[in-house]
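Input record (Table S2, row 465):
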Amino acid sequence: EPTKLWGGRFASGPAEAMAALSLSTHFDWRLAPYDIAGSRAHARVLHQAGLLTADELDRMHRGLDVLAADVESGAFQPVVEDEDVHTALERGLLERVGTDLGGKLRAGRSRNDQVATLFRMWLRDATRRVAAGVLDVVDALAGQAQAHPDAVLPGRTHLQHAQPVLLGHHLLAHCQALLRDVSRLRDWDARTAFSPYGSGALAGSSLGLDPQAVAAELGFDGGAVDNSIDGTASRDFAAESAFCLAMLAVNLSRVAEEVIIWNTAEFRYVTLDDAWATGSSIMPQKKNPDVAELARGKSGRLIGNLTGLLATLKAQPLAYNRDLQEDKEPVFDSVEQLDLLLPAMAGMLGTLTFHTERLAELAPAGFTLATDIAEWLVRQGVPFRVAHEASGECVRTAEARDVGLNDLTDEELAAAHPALTPAVREVLTVPGSIASRDSHGGTAPDRVNEQRDRVFEAIREHRAW
Ligand code: ARG
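Output record (arginine complex):
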């Protein structure tokens, strides 16, 4: 005799196709441990409200413990007649404590407030795991910065050579974005730390239950939600989570795209460690950056999860609608993809070999020191508009002779502007240029070292979350 949570007003059971459409245990079963934790807390407030004796509470808790162990071991599983995780676990409880006692637990709660609560609980735990994985990626990038304190490369805008920068400065830029992803997850968590349990179907309960006690027992530091309709109907926490995860994936895809470019024969900036690359089934020479490509690809998938969920939520009237059952799979999927991706990204980035001699050779190429000439002239009192023209003329002369800016003769420099004395050559080297950019956040070695220390400090602080 399958357990149904409804049926009194129905003369027949659901059609097969109806039941198949309705079924959600294949994805909501992962909420089972949270469902049981919710049931333990709910039993306690039923007891406090005088609806369960002390003995009944004790038997209920012991039954839930056995059920939790059986779920954990796999001894208890959902069957096809179980509509969802809540239905399956009610059957499991009735089988363990009998229908008289087991049938009392549903008083004052609904699957609507249950599922809204359990989804938040699952997601809050998953978010901490994701954040830890992001910090491993940040650690790998900052570790590379630390391992190459003097390495330089041509900084780019429009993918064209722009100005030389320290490799560490560039890698730490990715760290900054990823650390913001982590603080965004923490901000999200603070907004999500409110429990809908006790909202019932939508209107609250007449049974004298204590939603604040349930919230406290389930680790919702914000307490119970302030509005039972909102508690059961709102899913902005799910959409915001999908955004935070999609933004993270997009930031990872930007690192990944650079690794893919850096790894080409034309760039030859990096070599991938064998453990984090793949081969070709036909071309024996191939060593492909699949981790980075999957990062780039999965970012599209996570964007899709966000937009799909927003479309599901759009224009739903209050309060609960069954559409909301579609809220979970996109978010579960985003988390699962990141569970796979983050360790691989940390591994790939942490084991990259940077070809620092080649990077140093390329750093001044493409006249990346032209801005240094202009800024040097400004420091001699020349208006920037004039200095820009003069430096541009130096570039034109050097280009015509196919030499670098630091190969220009004293006469050629003076011809571009009378203030351009041979002393300008102090900034016409890559280290000179880099050392001169010592503003806060700039690429000078001292500034980059300070920044790197702050990044390591932020990693430590976030890990204590
Ligand atoms: N499985 C549903 C969900 O994920 C919860 C059940 C609510 N069902 C209902 N008929 N009120 O949203």
